[in-house]
């Protein structure tokens, strides 16, 4: 039996570590860092965002988590995220997966899922 994507990402602790490192990468990425830097001054909001991301990634990858946050459209409405910003975020995600030695098929699975969300995020 094939392991779920959730298991291949390391389960709950693996997903949490990935989310932490993806956010760190976004904070250093000149294309999108301005969108994330304000979170550094709002630690409670950052913790909430990370918790939602962990639940979102967990639920979306076959884990037991339940995502109760806003829809992707609602969460990104009014942000007018460009295609370049979206790709910069995707690059951070993929680089983080590779840095965590996530296998190639799992990286491809995450890429496919992420690209399926693009219409719900870009230019909302």
UniProtKB/TrEMBL annotation:
One of its GO terms (biological process) is oxygen transport. Heme binds at residues 52, 76. GO terms for molecular function: heme binding; metal ion binding; oxygen binding. Keywords: Heme, Iron, Metal-binding, Transport. Transmembrane segments: none annotated. The keyword Heme applies. It holds the Pfam family Bac_globin. This is Hemoglobin.
